[in-house]
Amino acid sequence: MVDRDDARDSRPALLREPYRLFFPMGALYALIVMAGWGLWLLDPGGQSAGWPVPALPLAWIHGHSLIWGVLQFFIFGFALTALPRQCGHGEAIPPRRWLALLIAFLAAQAAIWGGALGFGAGLAVSGAALGGGLILAVAVGLARWVPDAGKPHQPRFAVAALALIGGAAVADALAWATTDPALHAWAVRAGLYGQMGLALTFLHRLLPMFGRNAIDGYRGEQGARFLPFLGAGMIARLGLAAFPGEGVTIAGGVVDLVLAAWVAREAWRWSPRTAVGRWLVGAKLVPVAWFTVGLALSGVAGLGAVWPDAGRAWIHALGLGGMASLVLVFSTRVSLGHAGHSLDPDRWLRAGLWLLQAAVVVRLLAPLWTAPYGGGMMNSTHWAAWLWLAAFALWLARLLPRMAEHS
Predict the structure, then answer these.
(1) Running along the chain, 407 residues long, what does each successive block of 10 average in pLDDT?
(2) Does a structural domain hold residue 310?
(3) Rounded distance, CA 383 to CA 378, Å?
(4) How many CB atoms lie within 10 A of CB 311?
(5) Do the beta carbons of residue 128 and residue 55 sit within 8 Å?
(6) What is the C-alpha to C-alpha distance for residues 216 and 119, in angstroms, rounded to an integer?
(7) What's the domain range around 336?
(8) Which residue, 50, 142, 196, 208, shows the most beta carbons closer than 10 Å to its own?
(9) Nearest-5° angle of CA 72, CA 173, CA 322?
């Protein structure tokens, strides 16, 4: 009988862990999506450049391909690598299964863009529904191992958040099929809140652990009630978002502000003053800061504050600032650590993270100094797309060789 460790060692390096293919695919997809979006923003509507007329609002396709495309590739890579190990099933997923998932998910993304740009909205809807169904299938598959975890508290929240992300993707596909902007807006909120919940679930466990392992005298700790309260708050917020009305909108804003304060309180428990003593520990606080900002922006908008592009500012703070920063930091940590390299990234990888922060700042501030009409606001935000592209290009150039290394 072949020993499982021997069988794993005989595999090509790229087939040893799911992240080795999912992470580079996410970075490559980020380059493709943001290059196309940046070019389109130079000529909104695409009249002079001869762009095809999309079968669905291009902003809907753009948001879906980032939330449930680019970010989801990284989420798959990390969840399929980390969660089975946390549940005592580190080698339970054979490569053929996650390779099949990768191929099916690529097919879903291709269907979305093919349908949107020429083959009909029906194909795009099918691709979005397939992508959401695959996320749900992964959540169900991982859920069967949760009872085997020594402390199942954190894995249960992670699997629940993954299921919410998948359900939101299916809801967005339904919004496309019915051309329902209200359902689309709810799906985007649910998808981003699910991803934020998943990120904070992992950070709640890993950031204090990494801090204790890497920094002498680190005193960070985990709040025992953080995840239950966070989960309850997100459910309440998404429930309120499902109903129209001024009073409901105000109540939702209040919940967002409470969640922002709750996340900030937990981040303070993680001892940020000592966490910055090691770059990859302190850098994990960057997405947490953006999650707090995004929730606060959503909260004050719900209470009636108005500024240019207020309805989308929180989306970019959570998605671009929070989740994109998190996947860069986490994927860097995993890629360097599993390849046996130093966990201190070089100056190019650090520059990639700061370029991404510049992209967030540009995207949030550009609408404040440009006219919202005549394409002014959209034209100005193309700079954020190029900064995003540069950040992920640096990641791909520096870390792609690590994926093929034996560890």
Answers:
(1) 50 74 91 84 60 78 93 93 78 84 96 88 93 96 81 83 97 95 96 96 88 84 90 96 90 97 94 85 91 97 90 93 92 75 78 92 84 52 86 88 68
(2) yes
(3) 10
(4) 12
(5) no
(6) 58
(7) 18-403
(8) 196
(9) 35
CB 373 within 8 A of CB 366: no
Q: Is the separation of the CB atoms in 260 and 299 below 8 Å? A: yes
Please give the torsion angle defined by the CA atoms of residues 297, 193, 37 and 44, in that order, rounded to the nearest 10 degrees. -50
Distance from C-alpha of 33 to C-alpha of 162, rounded to nearest angstrom = 23
Determine, yes or no, domain membership for 11. Answer: no
What is the C-alpha to C-alpha distance for residues 326 and 71, in angstroms, rounded to an integer?
10
Residues comprising the chain, all counted: 407
Instruction: Give the C-alpha separation, 304 to 298, whole Å.
Output: 10
Q: What is the CATH number of the domain that holds 45?
A: 1.20.210.10
Tokens read off for 108: 């879903």
pTM: 0.91
Residue 183 in tokens: 């359902």
